[in-house]
Every structure is written in structure tokens, then in C-alpha cells.
Amino acid sequence: MHLKLESFVSFLALLVLFHVLVGLSHAAAAVAAGGGDQFMYEGFAGAWLDLDGMAVVEPDGKLMLTNVTSQMKGHAFHPAPLRFHAPANGTAAVRSFSTAFVFAIAADYVTVSGNGLAFFVAPSKNLSTASPSQFLGLFNSENNGNASNRIFAVELDTILNPEFRDINSNHVGVDVNGLVSVASKPAGYYADDDAGAFKNLTLFSGDAMQVWVDYDGGAMVINVTLAPVEVPKPSKPLISVAVDLSPVVNGTAYVGLSSSTGPFHTRHYVLGWSFAMDGPAPPLNYANLPKLPRVSAKRRSKVLDVLAPVATPLLALAVVAGVSFLVWRRIRYAELREDWEVEFGPHRFAYKDLFGDIAAAADARLCGDYDPNEAALVLKLGLLCSHPVAAERPSMRQVVQFLDGDVALPEPEPTYRSFTTLAMMQNADGFDSCAVSYPSTSTSIDGAPSVLSGGR
Ligand SMILES: *[C@@H]1O[C@H](CO)[C@@H](O)[C@H](O)[C@H]1NC(C)=O
Ligand SMILES: *[C@@H]1O[C@H](CO)[C@@H](O)[C@H](O)[C@H]1NC(C)=O
Ligand SMILES: *[C@@H]1O[C@H](CO)[C@@H](O)[C@H](O)[C@H]1NC(C)=O
Ligand SMILES: *[C@@H]1O[C@H](CO)[C@@H](O)[C@H](O)[C@H]1NC(C)=O
Ligand SMILES: *[C@@H]1O[C@H](CO)[C@@H](O)[C@H](O)[C@H]1NC(C)=O
Ligand SMILES: *[C@@H]1O[C@H](CO)[C@@H](O)[C@H](O)[C@H]1NC(C)=O
Ligand SMILES: *[C@@H]1O[C@H](CO)[C@@H](O)[C@H](O)[C@H]1NC(C)=O
């Protein structure tokens, strides 16, 4: 018995040692395969990477660039700088390079995600001044578009940002020094097994997809190709655009992957990544990559997904407001009921009416016979309760506090900081821009805390 236990313990020790050795040899293999100008990771356990921000390698080897926290960024860098110019070669031309990576974007909301993921080449590993959200952790509002950034990136963008002239909320773009892409296309691929027919892809579907970025230093052409992970590299790239990288990638530079979140709960995963100078990136074998958690087996209908979180509090509020209004009218106009009141019907308040003098939205037929403060309170509260971001909506307890006047209702602000919200409203079916009237404090670039945080 005693002997058995001892041998069992030593067996365990051997097992642990074996795992450590295997782990080390895997990590070593990844580095050795690198040989300086080349690397390949199928899973990132033991990978030689510099991570910052939210980026972490999960125990099973998935690289998670962002978790579900809002307004954050994460980077993964190949730690060593790469020489982008041919050695002892007087010409300014940038060497050819090629990269491939497998990613998955898992969003909590089925219809919106934020903000995206990018492969990039940058002169330093310090991106501390870059902003999250629509800046993808690569740029900020001051330096966006400035040639001194010397950043080249391929973005997988899941938000439509009008200020960057984005084409839609699901696109691939080639970026040089800023987020206004030099070329972009809706996400998809030309299927070789279907005579090159174009197939749409949804970047934030939660499904694993592969991206290839190939730069031909001689022809100065960037190709970007996207495909579902089980599909071999399509022969026709999604984007093929002439870009001279010589003023951008000067001398040595770092390659990395970046991701950022806006107001929406989104996890950006990378499952494998390879890179090579002067030749094709080593192919990734999907069978060797860490597996994704299965996203909820059955997806809910889009309409339900958008409407349910909005409709429930709205419905509750509408019932409360409706009942109170009827009671109030009964008491107030018990004696003087007029003909027009019979026709009293449903009303629509245009955003332009609400914006500015909120009381202008009140029914003219009330002839000013109401408390403007009360009317404004109810209208603003309605806007707040229909906020597109669930976390921004007040709880029932807060609604009561606002109505009682115990707590001051936050003032709606002009929409300067709400581009992301605006984009989200455009992306989500069943909404129009008038619902954007109440900007989300949580989308602010300066990270001002939400007035209502912790309300639910
Ligand atoms: C996300 O990452 C941040 C920074 O690493 C951490 O503070 C936070 O707790 C994480 N959130 C979740 C839900 O894991
Ligand atoms: C320098 O590099 C360019 C681009 O890679 C190549 O076309 C050219 O032949 C090289 N010149 C010499 C002298 O090696
Ligand atoms: C990164 O850059 C910022 C601003 O340029 C600087 O304040 C910070 O010290 C730098 N961090 C490191 C680790 O070099
Ligand atoms: C670009 O960045 C450089 C260095 O940060 C700065 O001196 C210059 O003024 C910027 N240019 C513009 C147009 O903002
Ligand atoms: C693919 O997406 C485009 C918009 O990007 C849309 O116009 C087209 O109808 C979609 N095609 C299919 C087959 O879903
Ligand atoms: C880029 O795509 C074009 C058009 O399909 C192709 O002719 C060229 O060889 C490709 N270049 C690279 C570096 O993949
Ligand atoms: C690269 O940078 C150096 C110094 O920063 C500059 O003199 C040179 O002109 C640059 N080369 C290109 C191709 O922009």
C-alpha cells in the first residue's frame, strides 16, 4: 500500500515534469520556427508575446484581446522588432511580408458589437496614448491621420463610424496612419468552390475566421483575404490595393494585434497567428487551434434581441405613465370635458421638438395648462428609459426617485460624444436616428463615469 502510494506520487511528478517539458518545447518550437523573421503560434500557451491592456492568454491558449469591459483596449506584440528593409540594400523599398491569423468576435448583443480588431505594424510597442472604442487602440482624436504615426493596419471593424467614412458596420479596411481607410470592403470572400461567387460574412458572429495580409514589396500592393476558418485561402483577395509602405514602415518596426471595446460587451479572440518576411506566412492548421466556447446554440431572433431589452422597461414605464395620466386627467378635467378631447389620440414627438426647449413637444391643445417642469421630467425620463445601451437605463427604483424629485434627472447633452451610439442605432434594425437623442455618458472618450452606473 505504502509502496503503491509512493509510486503513484512519483508517477504524478513525472506526469507534471512531462507536461512542463512539452509546454517548454512547444514554446521553444514557436520561437525556433520564428528564426527572427518568421513566427507561428497555433494557440498562445507559452507564446513569446508582449501583452498590454486587457489582453490575456487564457489557460487553453486562446489570446483574448478584450474581455467584456467597456471602453478598453488590448495589444499583443511580437516582442522583437522586425527589419522591414532588405539588409545592405540601398533602396527605400519595404520587404514583402505576409501574415495570417484566426480570430473570433463574440458579442453579448447579437446585433451589435464593438469595436473591432486589427493587425498592425508600428514603430514602437508603446500605444499608451491610443484611445479605445472607435480608435481601435491604435490612434486617438489628436493623431488620427497624421503621417508621423507611421502605423499601417488592417482593421476588422464592427461599428459604422461616419467620422472615418466607414462603409458599414461589418467591414475590412486597409489603414495608413489613421482610421479613414485607403480601401475597404464589406466582410466576405470570393468562394473558389462556387465559381468565385461573393459570400457575406458577419465579423462578430462568434465564428472563427481567418485573415491573410500579404504585402508585395516589389509591386507595392497589399492584399487582404478573409474566409471562414474551414475554407482554404480563397485565390481572389477581398481587397487588393496599391500602397507604398516605404514612408510608413521605416527601418525596423513591431507587428501586433490590437482590439478595443466601446459600449458593447465584446470579447475579441485570436486563436492562431503566423508571420513571415519575404514569403507566405506559415499556414495555420485549424485542428491544432484552441477551440471556442460554443456560442449559445440557438440564436434568438434579431428583432427580439433588439426589442426585448428596450421594450420591457418602456412597456413598464408606458403603463405607469398611461395610468397616471388618465388618473390625472380624470381629476383635472372632470368638470370641463370638451369635444376635441374625445379625439385625443397617440402622439409622436420629433427629436427636433424635444431637443432644445423640451416643453415645445407638449400637446398644443393643453394650451400651456400644465407644469412645464413636470412635462420636461416625464419626457426626459422617457428618453432615458429608451436608451439604446441597457446599462444606461434607470432602474425602477431610480425612476421613482426621479419622479418624486428626490434625485435630479441628468440633463440630455448634445450628441458630440455619441458617434458610437449613433452608429449602433444605424446598425440595429428597427430604430431610427431620433432615438439617439439621449447620448450615452459611458461612450465618452474621456471615460466620464456614467451618472446611472450601478443602477440596476
Ligand atoms: C477585464 O479585464 C480588466 C483588465 O484586465 C479587468 O480589470 C476586469 O476585471 C476584466 N473583466 C472581466 C469581466 O473579466
Ligand atoms: C533591394 O530590395 C528590393 C526590394 O526587395 C529588390 O527589388 C532589389 O533587387 C534589392 N536590391 C539589391 C541590390 O539587393
Ligand atoms: C509611453 O508613452 C507615454 C507618452 O508618450 C509615456 O508617458 C510613457 O512613459 C511611455 N511608456 C513607456 C513604458 O515607455
Ligand atoms: C502630427 O504629429 C506631429 C508630431 O506629434 C506634430 O508635430 C504635428 O503638428 C502633427 N500634425 C498635425 C497636422 O496635427
Ligand atoms: C451581402 O451584404 C450586402 C451588404 O453588405 C447586401 O447588400 C447583400 O444583399 C448581402 N447578400 C446576401 C446573400 O446576404
Ligand atoms: C494580390 O492579389 C492580386 C490579384 O488577385 C494578385 O495578382 C497578386 O499576386 C496578389 N499578391 C500577393 C502578394 O498575394
Ligand atoms: C526614414 O527615416 C529617416 C530618419 O527618421 C529619414 O531620414 C528617411 O528619409 C526615412 N525614409 C523614408 C523612406 O521615409
From TrEMBL:
<dbReference type="GO" id="GO:0004674">
    <property type="term" value="F:protein serine/threonine kinase activity"/>
</dbReference>
<dbReference type="GO" id="GO:0030246">
    <property type="term" value="F:carbohydrate binding"/>
</dbReference>
<comment type="similarity">
    <text>In the C-terminal section; belongs to the protein kinase superfamily. Ser/Thr protein kinase family.</text>
</comment>
<keyword id="KW-0430">Lectin</keyword>
<keyword id="KW-0732">Signal</keyword>
<dbReference type="Pfam" id="PF00139">
    <property type="entry name" value="Lectin_legB"/>
</dbReference>
<dbReference type="InterPro" id="IPR001220">
    <property type="entry name" value="Legume_lectin_dom"/>
</dbReference>
<keyword id="KW-0723">Serine/threonine-protein kinase</keyword>
<keyword id="KW-0325">Glycoprotein</keyword>
<keyword id="KW-0812">Transmembrane</keyword>
<keyword id="KW-0547">Nucleotide-binding</keyword>
<keyword id="KW-0472">Membrane</keyword>
<keyword id="KW-0067">ATP-binding</keyword>
<dbReference type="GO" id="GO:0016020">
    <property type="term" value="C:membrane"/>
</dbReference>
<comment type="similarity">
    <text>In the N-terminal section; belongs to the leguminous lectin family.</text>
</comment>
<keyword id="KW-0808">Transferase</keyword>
<dbReference type="InterPro" id="IPR050258">
    <property type="entry name" value="Leguminous_Lectin"/>
</dbReference>
<dbReference type="InterPro" id="IPR013320">
    <property type="entry name" value="ConA-like_dom_sf"/>
</dbReference>
<dbReference type="GO" id="GO:0005524">
    <property type="term" value="F:ATP binding"/>
</dbReference>
<feature type="signal peptide">
    <location>
        <begin position="1"/>
        <end position="27"/>
    </location>
</feature>
<feature type="domain" description="Legume lectin">
    <location>
        <begin position="38"/>
        <end position="290"/>
    </location>
</feature>
<feature type="transmembrane region" description="Helical">
    <location>
        <begin position="306"/>
        <end position="328"/>
    </location>
</feature>
<keyword id="KW-0675">Receptor</keyword>
<protein>
    <recommendedName>
        <fullName>non-specific serine/threonine protein kinase</fullName>
        <ecNumber>2.7.11.1</ecNumber>
    </recommendedName>
</protein>
<keyword id="KW-1133">Transmembrane helix</keyword>
<keyword id="KW-0418">Kinase</keyword>
